[in-house]
Design goal:
The chain has 176 residues and is α+β, with helices and mostly antiparallel strands. Helix content is 31%, strand content 20%. It is built from three helices and eight strands; from the N terminus they run E-E-E-E-E-E-E-E-H-H-H. A hairpin with a 4-residue loop joins strand 1 (11-14) and strand 2.
């Protein structure tokens, strides 16, 4: 039996179309004599119903919808305007490229030139995920440094070295 993977008014990326949309209706398909739907499709207002495999969730955010230090960084997909989806079938999500949005609006942030993305899509996808998670990594490093300061000399040497490295990385990020 089928279970709904998305809900009404949820923002999803529609892979075949290469755009973001809101789910307008969850459409269960029933069979006579069966208590649960046999499959579920989603109406996103684009002219036809889509299966769950054709849709992608937005990347989940942490507590309160934020990453790390209260930042709203996330990876979204932008439409690839320089190549049709058929010409870039080897890309992870053909017809799109990742954009790291670093503010509340859906624009702004980090993008990569199309030619660079086409050279190594897997590398750029990894870079986008790394940039989007950077606030959480910085918060983790800061927590490690704070914990090391409070622990004093009760720490193993390897952990002391990690805390020093985290402190150096945070100083570099802050421009100190």
């Amino acid at each position: 039996m089928a279970k709904a993977q998305f809900h009404k008014n949820q923002r999803v990326y529609v892979k075949p179309v290469g755009t973001w949309a809101l789910i307008e209706h969850v459409v269960p398909h029933w069979a006579k004599g069966i208590q649960e739907p046999i499959r579920i499709h989603y109406d996103v207002g684009l002219g036809r119903e889509f299966a769950a495999e054709e849709l992608l969730n937005e990347e989940p955010l942490g507590e309160n919808g934020q990453n790390g230090n209260g930042e709203h960084w996330r990876v979204v997909r932008a439409r690839n305007k320089w190549q049709p989806a058929e010409d870039c079938a080897r890309h992870p999500v053909p017809g799109t490229y990742p954009v790291v949005v670093t503010g509340d609006a859906e624009w702004g942030g980090w993008r990569v030139p199309g030619a660079e993305y086409d050279l190594d899509p897997a590398k750029v996808e990894m870079q986008a995920r790394l940039i989007a998670i950077a606030p959480k990594l910085a918060a983790f490093a800061g927590g490690l440094v704070d914990w090391a300061r409070k622990s004093g000399e009760d720490m193993p040497n390897e952990l002391v070295e990690l805390a020093h490295n985290a402190q150096d990385i945070l100083a570099h990020v802050k421009g100190q």
